[in-house]
Amino acid sequence: MKFRNGLLIGCAFLAGLAAAPQIAHYSAGRGGALAPMAHAADIVPKDDNTPREIEQLMFLFGYVLEKVKANYVEPVSTRDLITNSLNGMLSGLDPHSSYMTEKQFSDLQVQTKGSFGGLGLEVQGEDGHVRVVSPIDDTPAARAGIKPGDFIVAIDGKNIDGQPLDQVVTRMRGKPDTRITLTLIREKTPKPIIVTLTRAVIPLQVIKSSLYDTIGYIRIAQFNEETQSGLLAAYKKLQAQTHNKMAGLIIDLRSDPGGLLTQAIDVGSDFIRNGEIVSTRARHPQDSQRWDAHNTDITNGLPVVVLINGGSASASEIVAGALQDHQRAVLLGEKTFGKGSVQTILPIPGEGAIRLTTARYYTPSGRSIQGLGIVPDITVREARDDPGYSIHEADLAHIIKNRGGNTAQPPSRTDLPAIAKSIPAQPPANWPEFDPQKPATDFQLQQGLKVVRAMAGLPVAAEPPAPAEKTPASPATAATTPTPPKAAEPPTPSIPAEKQAAPESPAATPAPATSAPSTPAPAAPATPAPAAPAAPAHP
Predict the structure, then answer these.
(1) What mean pLDDT value characterizes the chain?
(2) Using CA atoms, how far apart are residues 208 and 474, in angstroms rounded to an integer?
(3) Number of structural domains, the chain?
(4) Which residues are catalytic?
(5) Predicted confidence (pLDDT) per residue in 475-530, tens digit
(6) Is 491 in contact with 443 (CB distance < 8 Å)?
(7) Which of 29, 62, 398, 453 is most buried (most C-beta within 10 Å)?
(8) Nearest to 452 by CA among 239, 307, 320
(9) pTM for the whole thing?
(10) Mutual orientation of helices 165-172 and 102-113 as an angle, nearest 10°?
(11) Distance between CA atoms of 405 and 407, rounded to whole angstroms?
C-alpha cells in the first residue's frame, strides 16, 4: 500500500542537517548562520562519541529549537518540541521503541488493567499514518469488520494524516452510545471504506472458551497479567463439562498481538513439561536470559492444535514457537507477524516513560523469528480470495536485523497426523461468508477440529461435531462464541460453540515491561515484555 510521504511529527532532529541550507534560505535575515553551523557539524567524524561531537550536537539541537520557536508559522511550546524530538529519537531506532508522555503512560496502565470507552481497536503510528494492529474481539470495531492492516485516514470526515497518535486515539475514545465515523484505506480495495460505529465500554477480556463434543477450544486474545490464570480457569471448566474426558484442545492465537513476556512463558510452560521455553539476548551478555518449563502439562499429554495467522505477534509467537519446537502441538493457519524483539518500559517519574527495544528473543531450537515469522505445520488460509495479512514485521521501516540465531527453520517433523496431507489450503468456492457469531463459518477452526480429532483417534466426520449442551455462565470464561481474530471470510459448516463466561481480565497492550507499568522497570531486560508491533494504543 502506497501513501504520500507525510512528515513524521517526532522526526529526529539530526534530520535537520540535510535541510539546513534550505531553511537558512527561507529564514534569511534571521537564520543566516544555520547553514554554516550545519556544515561545521558535518565535519565531525561519524560514530565518534567524543565530548566535542556531543557538545556540537547539543548545540545543534538547541539552535534548531530556537529557530523553530522563533520562526514557525504558529506559536509552539517548548514542551511540544522536546516531546516530538524524543519521539523521533526513539521511533527512529525501530518501529517498536517510543516515548510516552505522562498521559500516554497512564492510558497504557488503564488499558492493561481496566476498561475504557471506545471502539475496541488496537492501533499504532506508522510514518505519520494510523494503522490498525487488531480489533479486540466482540467490540464495535470487530463487529464493523475493521481488519488488521487497515489505515484510518479520517474521523468524522476530517483528515487525520500526520496527527500524533495520542490525539487520534483521544478522538476515537468517548462516552458510550455516541457515534463516530471512520474512513479506512485497505490494500487491494480501490475505494476508501467508510464505517459508522457506536462507542461502547470496552472490557479488556483475554480468554474465551467453548466445547465441541469432547474437543476444548480456548481463545487467547492478548497476554496480560491475568492471561494464565484465565487459561487455567477455562481449562478446568472444560474438563468439568466433559467429566475429565476431554480428548483434545485447540488454542487460538490468531490476531493476538502479544503482551507480557512472563505470561507467554507461563502459558508455554502449561503445555511443555521439560526444556526451554524462550531465551533473550541483550546488548550486554550479562542481561541475556533463558526460561525453562515448570515441569507441568495441564493436559497430561492431550493432542493440541494451535491456530495462528499474520496477526499473531510477539508473545503469541513465543508460545507458538515453543510448542512447535518441542513438537508439543501442531500449528495450523498462516505465517505469523514476525516480531522477534523484546521491549522494556522504563518509567520517568513525573514525565511518562520510555518504551525501548532491549533484546531479541529465540525459540527453544535457537532460531530468531525476527522479520521471518513462524510458518505453520499445516498452511490453511482464512478465506479463498483474501491474501491474508498484507503487513508483517519485515514490511515495516528500519526494523532490527535478524541475527544471533542458529537456524531459520524449525526442527523437521515426522509426527504430523496422516490427515495433515488432506487438509485443504483454502476454503472451497462455495464456502459461506464468515460470521463472527457462527463458528461453522470459520474455515481454519473447522480444519483444526478435524486435525485434533484425528490426533485423538476420533472419527473425523464430514460434518463437525455437535456442540455440547449449554451450561450456566461462569466468571472464569467469556460469555461469547469464539470469534476468529480477523474479520475475513473464512468458513466450514460447524455448529456454534458453546458459550461460557470468561474472567473479566484486562487485555494487555503489547509491550508492558518486566513489571507492571505502575512500578519502575529496571533498565536491564531481565523481565521485559515483548510488545505488539510498535507502540499500540487502544481507542
Answers:
(1) 79
(2) 11
(3) 3
(4) 314, 325, 339
(5) 333 333 334 444 333 333 444 334 333 333 333 333 333 333 333 333 333 334 44
(6) yes
(7) 453
(8) 307
(9) 0.70
(10) 50
(11) 6
**What confidence tens digit (pLDDT) does each residue in 350-364 have?**
889 999 999 999 999
Residue recorded with cell 474465551: 208
Same domain, 213 and 287: yes
Query: Would you say 181 and 157 are in contact if contact means Cβ atoms under 8 Å apart?
Result: yes
Number of residues written out for the chain = 539
| C-alpha separations of 293 from 269, 349, 350 in Å | 5, 36, 38
What pLDDT band is residue 25 in, cutting at 50, 70 and 90?
Answer: very low
Shared domain for 150 and 217, answered yes or no, is: no
The answer to whether residue 531 is domain-embedded is: no
Asked whether residue 368 falls in the same domain as residue 432, the answer is yes
Q: What is the DSSP letter of 314?
A: T
Q: Report the SS3 class of residue 424.
A: coil
Angstrom distance (rounded) from CA 305 to CA 415: 13
Pairing of strands 151-155, 158-159: antiparallel
Instruction: Assess contact for 315 and 343: CB atoms under 8 A.
Output: no
Looking at the structure, tell me whether residues 212 and 314 fall in a common domain.
Answer: yes
Cell numbers representing residue 124 in the block: 499504532
Query: What residues make up the domain containing 147?
Result: 116-203
Q: Can you list the positions of beta strands (E) in 79-224?
A: 98-100, 115-118, 121-126, 129-135, 151-155, 158-159, 179-185, 193-198, 200-203, 207-212, 215-220
- Distance from C-alpha of 496 to C-alpha of 488, rounded to nearest angstrom: 18
CB 381 within 8 A of CB 425: yes
DSSP string, 2-55: ----PPPTT--GGGHHHHHHHHHHHTTTT-TTHHHHHHHHHTSPTT---HHHHH
- Per-residue pLDDT, 66: 95
Pair (70, 185) in one structural domain: no
| Same domain membership, residue 326 and residue 228 | yes
